[in-house]
Amino acid sequence: MTDERPAAFQRARSAEQRELRKQAILDAATELLGEMTVGEISLRELSRRVGLSKTNVVRYFETREAVFFELLNRSLAQWIEDLSADLAAAGPAAPDAVTDTVARSLAGRPLLCGLFSALGPELERNISAEAVREFKLVHVRLLDELAGLVRSHIAALTPDAARELVSLTVVYTAGLWPFAHPSDAVAEAQRTPELADTKVDFATRLGRTLHIGVIGLLRLP
Questions:
Q1: Confidence (pTM)
Q2: Is the CB of residue 25 less than 8 Å from the CB of residue 46?
Q3: What CATH number does the domain containing 141 carry?
């Protein structure tokens, strides 16, 4: 069996063509994430879905992890843009209303939340230092942008406190998301009345946790 790329995917020669190829790969990854977890998606499966050979996918992303890094940052950038509009539409609000808006906005982004959850245990493993550096430089810039946005609505936070709150948001999201979306067996078990309290409402729990975080950060010296 040969591993030839389809005729429709001739080698990209311009920056615009390369970007189109990259976007096609990212679109295929997004589609697959609607069907399976990050851990279940191989580079071979991704290349098959996008209609490119594995060798040609590697021309744009050295590993499957690099694909998801790029997808995470693009999703994060889009979320920050949309969150800015959501917070602006809400007008002046108390800190708890701001954290509630952040939590509910994130809850509507399953792709981003799932990638946050996979970041530590899966995505930062089979990847070169250079690829991680490239990802994190963009990622840190985006998180700083998010911190600035949060601080513009909770002015009492210092710049350092705002950055810490954003860091906590990522950690809380990564931790809560899997528990809020359990396996079928766990979901069935949780229908037992005695286990009802083990169910996790992601938006509600994250909003409360972030509000508690803001209270603590505001009280620190």
A1: 0.85
A2: yes
A3: 1.10.357.10
